[in-house]
Amino acid sequence: MEGKMWAAVLHAPGDLVYEQVDIPVPGENDVLIRVKACGVCGSDIPRVLTTGTYHFPTIPGHEFGGTVVETGKNVDPAWKGRHAAVIPLIPCRTCRACERGAFAQCEHYDFLGSRSDGGFAEYVKVPKDNLVFLPEGMNPETAAFLEPVSVALHVIQNNQVHFGDDVAVFGLGAIGIFVAQWAKAFGARHVFAVDLDPQKTEIAKKIGLTDAICGSKEDALRVILEKTGQEGVDAAFEASGSGAAFNQALAILKAEGRLGLVGRPAGSLEIRNEGFEKILRKQLTIRGTWSFEFKRFPHHAWELALSALNEGKILTEPLISHRLPLEKTMDAVRIMADKSEFFHKILIEP
């Protein structure tokens, strides 16, 4: 397919321009995707405004999916017309990490939306191995959620949440609320979904997270202790990047509890002395999680995430606060950076 397309192109930090560029040409092992929707991730905010991408110009956006409209020479032409989510990580598949299936730790990876052009565009060139096809009847817009839902699944699996566990999640952005939903799906007894924003905790309650707590209205630690018989939780997750939330998560853990970190801190983070002492005395485990899994064995995480979405175990529709056209991409970034109005999940729909 030759011609021009519209895209939000980053030319320098803070310089995101809605303009026409050439439609990418798929290689022999690629497909061309017509983008249905692309989510704006929290990591897109510094990428667009301050840190930039790995080269310029670049089209950001890595939470996306759409329809296959063109196939390369080595791709089944029957794929045309099928809806798919896109795995943005392109591993080298030759380094030591890749050899053991740890693609998130690849030493020479490519990434759609930061190292190569991504989903803030009408069309994207995607390797054929990076597609996850949607089942018949699923809303194609749902493809934009598969990346953050898969990240949240990786968080839960990394920290070994078990049936009957008590779990607390601090920070109910997209990743945090998906972590909370996965904890419930894994059979947690209580899932304390904590946020300072009452609108987010109300949304959490509406999608079945009945133990949601608004930290600006209630003492979250007191409520959690009351509901767990003063024991605390087996696993806590810090998904906000807040130093205060980090220390709260430490404080609420049982002995030998697990603290999962996924929120990226906006500033320096200090561990209080009593928190550090607790890590030692109570033999707490602290584990970070980066990106997502997509090795095929023993289970393909993206396919598990897709099944959970299709079966209604993970809900996305109530989280969508904005659907904006492609030309409003910079507006979406500003809303999230300035917090000038309430937002939860913003989708860009070319």
Nutshell version of this structure?
This protein is an alpha/beta fold and 350 residues long. It has helices at residues 44-51, 96-99, 146-158, 174-185, 198-206, 220-227, 243-251, 273-281, 301-310, 329-338; strands at residues 4-12, 15-22, 30-39, 63-71, 83-86, 89-90, 110-111, 123-127, 131-133, 166-170, 190-195, 213-214, 233-238, 253-261, 285-288, 320-325, 345-349.
List the helices and strands and how they pair.
Layout: E1 4-12, E2 15-22, E3 30-39, H1 44-51, E4 63-71, E5 83-86, E6 89-90, H2 96-99, E7 110-111, E8 123-127, E9 131-133, H3 146-158, E10 166-170, H4 174-185, E11 190-195, H5 198-206, E12 213-214, H6 220-227, E13 233-238, H7 243-251, E14 253-261, H8 273-281, E15 285-288, H9 301-310, E16 320-325, H10 329-338, E17 345-349
Parallel strand pairs: 10-11, 10-13, 11-12, 13-14, 14-15, 16-17
Antiparallel strand pairs: 1-2, 3-4, 3-8, 3-17, 4-5, 5-9, 6-7
Helix pairs in contact: 1-10, 3-4, 3-9
Poorly predicted segments: none
Query: What is the helix fraction of residues, given as a range?
Result: 25-40%
Number of strands: 17
**Class inferred from helices and paired strands:** alpha/beta
What is the domain total for the residues? 2
Largest sheet: number of strands, sense, barrel closure: 7 strands, mixed
